[in-house]
Amino acid sequence: MAPSRSEIEKLASHLATSDPSPFFERVSPDVVWDVMGTHPAAGHFTSLESWKKGALGVINERLKEPLKLKVVNVLGGGDQDWATVELEANSVCKNGMEYPQRYAWVMRFDENGTIVQVRAYLDSALVQKAVDQNP
Fold it and tell me: Which InterPro entries match (predicted)?
């Protein structure tokens, strides 16, 4: 069973801070994290570390500061195993290009409230533009 909607919102709010570790402490080290699309950050990741190095790493390498994600909305949770968190990032790439990314993370929680699966949806064209203009 997933945490409540308000608990998920509070948990995800740590992604907007300089210390997102409280969120990642609730993600299984063996999470299955799919970043949808056909861009350099897309892929099927079978651990938190591989997602951080792969998908998150591709983006953070292009930004002036590490990605910070603000919660826009939370759907589900509570008596459902699945919840969706809508997030926004208003970042700036190293070349000065704005990076106004939007995300929808569809997350599955196990019986202990740990995130064990994520499907992340985002603006693929924006990722590709950031990568192309910030090699």
Answer: NTF2-like_dom_sf
Q: pTM for the complete prediction? A: 0.95
Note the pLDDT of residue 15: 98
Q: Which helix (H) or strand (E) holds 8?
A: helix 5-13
SS3 state at 41: coil
The SS3 of residue 70 is: strand
Instruction: Dump the DSSP string for 71-99.
Output: EEEEEE-TTSSEEEEEEEEEEEBTTS-EE
Average pLDDT over residues 20-46: 98
Contact 76/84 with Cβ under 8 angstroms?
A: yes
Rounded Cα–Cα distance for residues 106 and 84 (Å): 4
